[in-house]
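Form 7-S
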Amino acid sequence: MRIVIAEDDPLLREGLALLLRAEGLEVAATAADPDGFLTAVDAHAPQVAIVDVRMPPTHTDEGITAAVEARRRRPDLAVLVLSAYVEQAFATDLLARGSARLGYLLKERVGRVGEFMTALHRVAAGGTAIDPEVVAQLMSRNRPDRRLERLSPRELEVLALMAEGLGNAAIAEKLFISDGAVHKHIRNIFAKLDLPPTDRTDRRVTAVLHYLENGTPRA
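Output:
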């Protein structure tokens, strides 16, 4: 796995590079600003980019803008975004744009090496990785939607794990239930959220977006 890192904090940038190399991964380049990041993407054709949300010169959304441009240049590029705190607009937009090969983690997650590496490999393999704390904070900020009250406690658990980017097999393992039970719960979720089959939308992504935007109806 060939990786490019875009992070303006030199300690975190070099720490990430050391961690990934220690895990046997190839860090092709590191960059401290968006221009350097895009130059590295063009030069090294990485499979994965790890990008800080806020970068010079204004430290607002330069990292996200650069990541979008990198994906335009290399549509198959997996992007794992790191943020010091939850940025709601981007977290929901991440899924709205399409969730394949995308991740959003809080920087504190890097210190939990096992969880961080699991998320990195999931994104590189084409999946989605959303930090559990991101999901929790988004839920607490939003008003509940009446449709979520239709879901059973187990269905809410399944939907929460879907929001973190877990696939059916991983959800089954996490909840100690069978794959068949997970499929049944997801079918029930779609039905209770009024999400009929359609070629125009991905029901899984729509259900997760609905959950992130409306929170949980239970205390």
